[in-house]
Design the sequence.
């Protein structure tokens, strides 16, 4: 049975409605990107300046020098000599004086722990024990003059009835024996004894 004219009209209408509904849900397609050569040519024809090209960088551009400063580094630290003074991490008695400025005035060997008293140039006495670090530190540079540095102090090694033995060890040079100083309790008596000795 053939469809009638009205039936054909309804079928065509339904087809158009379905087609219109399908076209409404279609996703839009982005236009193709413009041709750069064509846009540059049209820009020069229109009197506009050409597109600027960025600088080309090489590896040498990122090496820090006098003319190429790291933007993340402080300018003050870069252009000034950084203070490299070594900081002593140990407690040191009489740290502002050299060993030659001190005078040994007393030794106590009785009891559990021997002790000794040194007097500084101001007349103030300080009691020290075995293992006490004393006196102004000596600063030692590692490598060249701009290399890292560390400090060495005298340490009380032994307290004997007539003198105090001090040593200064360099932990960076374990093969070198430590420096030794002996401070007598009565240096004048020792000098007199040396003068009276036959020789």
Sequence:
């Amino acid at each position: 049975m053939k469809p009638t004219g009205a039936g054909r009209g309804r079928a065509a209408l339904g087809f158009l409605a379905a087609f219109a509904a399908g076209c409404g849900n279609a996703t839009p397609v982005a236009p193709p990107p413009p041709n750069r050569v064509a846009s540059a040519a049209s820009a020069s024809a229109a009197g506009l300046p050409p597109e600027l090209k960025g600088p080309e960088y090489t590896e040498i551009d990122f090496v820090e020098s006098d003319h190429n400063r790291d933007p993340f580094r402080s300018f003050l630290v870069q252009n000034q000599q950084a203070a490299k003074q070594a900081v002593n991490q140990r407690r040191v008695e009489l740290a502002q004086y050299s060993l030659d400025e001190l005078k040994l005035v007393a030794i106590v060997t009785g009891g559990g722990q021997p002790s000794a008293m040194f007097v500084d140039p101001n007349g103030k006495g300080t009691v020290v024990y075995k293992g006490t670090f004393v006196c102004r530190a000596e600063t030692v540079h590692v490598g060249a003059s701009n290399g890292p540095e560390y400090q060495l102090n005298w340490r009380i090694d032994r307290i004997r009835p007539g003198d105090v033995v001090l040593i200064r060890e360099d932990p960076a040079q374990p093969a070198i024996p430590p420096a030794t100083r002996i401070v007598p309790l009565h240096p004048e008596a020792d000098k007199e004894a040396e003068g009276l000795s036959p020789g």
Summary: The longest strand covers residues 149-159. The longest helix spans residues 5-24. The two ends are 154 Å apart (CA to CA).
